[in-house]
Write the structure tokens for this entry.
Amino acid sequence: MRAVTLNSVPATPAVTEIPTPHPEAGEVLVKVAVSSINGFDASTAAGYLQQMMEHRFPLVVGKDFAGTVEALGEGAEGFAVGQAVFGVVMKPFLGTGSLAQYVTVPAGYGIAPIPEGLAVQEAGALGLAGTAALDSVNAVAPADGETVLISGATGGVGALAVQLAAARGARVIATARPGAEADFVTGLTEHTVHLVDFSGDMQAEVRALAPEGVDAVLHLAGEGSQLAGLLRPGGRIASTLGLTSDAVTGSVHGGDVTVHTIMADPNPQTLAVLAEQTVSGALRVPVTATYPLEQAPEAFAAFGAGALGKLAVTCS
């Protein structure tokens, strides 16, 4: 099969020919129709995860997938051959990713049916970013009328988080530079989104909008401790970038903030919620460009250059 692989890290991903995987006991073999590029994939290629997870080479990159069940491993339950599914590859090692024509995934975790009304292109770009966004918003649990600052609003996670927070009645402040970025973010939802320019004096702009401090922060980009300094006393911050309480204690309101370190958990229930919200129109998957598998290296380059939203890759 054709797949996007790395023979070492750091390295530039390349499209190569490798053997088609076979599902082990408890696994599902999925024929991948659509995948997407995530920050996790870029970090893998850059070598940032070498000390964190086992790497098996040639390493197929990719976390998101949407497609159809091709075969079932021994004891795999809950799915049928030919069924449309989507999700996130969740294994304790890196090597058997989803930017490929086929991928094997555990039947009990990181996979869910694609409901009627959910387009495969959306499903293939929803899993990881959607889970990270939903888990982050759930962690800070904004009440109606509370102010939430979303740093990293132009990326896949941030673009989904803007919609989720606004739908809960939060007053959203989002980072975006004037021009295309600002237009992209304000076009994500019918609710009002207040913009601040992270390339300028962002702290002053946030303070002008929230003089008493914001109630919650989603740390998806930028310096977490500086963002925590924009919280009101008793505020909450959720970070997908590893921010911990130790990093802000003593520097923010005497440590009077709650820090949530987010590790996206794409369990079947979360995936089902994301799919349901997308089908209902409450959530829009912000796919801004789609590449064929053979052009996946170009998609990685575009991602690294700061592409807006999600970049999808058609795999078969």
In short: The CA atoms of residues 10 and 47 lie 4 Å apart. The radius of gyration is 19 Å. The longest helix spans residues 127-140.
